Amino acid sequence: MFTLLPSEGERTEQPEASLTREDYDRAFGVVYTPPALVEFMVSLAAPAVSPCRVLEPACADAPFLRAFARRYGETHALTGVEINPDSLRGAARLLPSATFHEADFLLWDTEERFDIVIGNPPYGIIGDGSHYPIHLLKERKAQYRARSRTWRGKYNIYGAFIERAVNLLKPDGKLVFVVPASWLVLDDFQTLRAFLAQMGRVRVFYLGRVFPKRNVSAVVLLLERGQQGLELYDGMEHLALRRERYTGEIIRFEAEDPLQVERAGVPLGEVFHIHFAARSPEIRRHPAVRSEPGEGLVPVLTGRNLRAGWIDYDTCYSGWWFPKERAPELRSFYAFPHLVVAHTKGTSVVAAVDDRCYPWREEFHLVPKEDGIDLHAVCDYLNSVRVQEYVRFLYRDFVPHLTATMLRRVCLPLNLVCHKSLHNQLSLDIEGGNYE
Ligand SMILES: C[S@@+](CC[C@H](N)C(=O)[O-])C[C@H]1O[C@@H](n2cnc3c(N)ncnc32)[C@H](O)[C@@H]1O
To answer: What is the pTM of this model?
Structure first.
């Protein structure tokens, strides 16, 4: 059961209708599209045939259909789908020539296929209200998942919208959606990227923080069915990357300089096992954990204890204390000195060596695959300006944190890598034909 939209600021007594507009917007992933962005996207959706069939999913008051009709005329068959009947009434009043359906787009069954699907789908992870924004639709999550072939991990409702929208295109149709940039790099979207690559040419326009007051970096995705390849634009016009063939790899701003860093070294993922810290529920359940300091107890460390090249072992930000010698019961690698790299500090690499072997609740923990690695030298390199520029250039602010995939690909210069890794890498290069 989901709730209807009350008027601005209104609250009523019934629990189901007790949402302010802000609550509703958060719960349904509502982000209103700036008019200049609507115009840009409509310019990408120029009709190849006339009249054509245009669909705006999650249309609210149909800003894209209205802009489309203004620019290309009202002879086209315009359709909007929206879950909220109040918004639909507004849409029907503003664009009487269009057809509107009150439906959940992800469960909407239609035989119709469209030349153009355009819009701004809702964003957010569907789940429990205390953790995830899209909680009003959580009862439907199993149905969404059953109908989606790209759903992975926690996923995000916008991924399911992209898939459904592409499946409603005619064989030469076009999708134009503005969505968060996270699908370019996150593992949860690997299947979606492969699906898009298979369905047509993927063109991505990176726009960054284009939504006022929203902490989300956005891209416009233009998918042209019946074509192939990948294009990445920096902004609305500047072509930064073109590939004739694309099969779903992560998408990043690849340029000569940052790629030199990769070519000149061995990927961190070859040299280190990259683990994640013990999770909060495991720590909370452990019989030795305490919520007060005490004899023989040390703070459980978090990202806030980690700085470049330095760890604050004294301040307890987690609210938990733990016997230091029992830390390996949480994760075996807490038993010995190892490298800790931040997950939670934006797209930058912040590393320090934990040589006191404390328990941790956050961050990546890197354990060398073989002896002889100088952890402090690797740590200095990871904190260097060169590495910061490399990650920043390739991944901008696509996601608010460093991911394991990004970290795995950071390459270490050969002098920091010991003999065996180097040998393995050289054999790989020779097998792969990269050896010059
Ligand atoms: C991000 S807003 C986009 C609004 C509009 N497209 C714009 O750009 O201004 C999302 C809209 O999606 C609607 N919505 C959320 N989940 C939906 C669903 N599963 N099916 C259809 N509409 C949905 C919300 O009611 C809201 O109007």
So the answer is: 0.87
Atom 11, ligand 1: residue with shortest CA distance: 58
Q: CB under 6 Å to ligand 1: residues? A: 28-33, 58-60, 63, 81-84, 87, 104-106, 119-120, 122
Distance, C-alpha 163 to centroid of its chain: 16
User: 204 in helix, strand or coil?
Assistant: strand
Report yes or no: 29 and 124 within 8 Å, Cβ to Cβ. Answer: yes
Question: Between 3.90.220.10, 1.10.287.70, 2.60.120.590, 1.20.1420.30, what CATH number should domain 257-432 receive?
Answer: 3.90.220.10
**Structure-block tokens of residue 316:** 């307890």
Distance of CA 412 to the CA centre of its chain: 26
The CATH classification of domain 15-251, taken from the options 3.40.50.150, 3.40.50.720, 3.30.2420.10, 3.40.1400.10: 3.40.50.150
- Note the pLDDT tens digit of each residue in 165-177: 999 999 999 999 9
Q: CA-CA distance, 354 to 169, in Å (whole number)?
A: 53
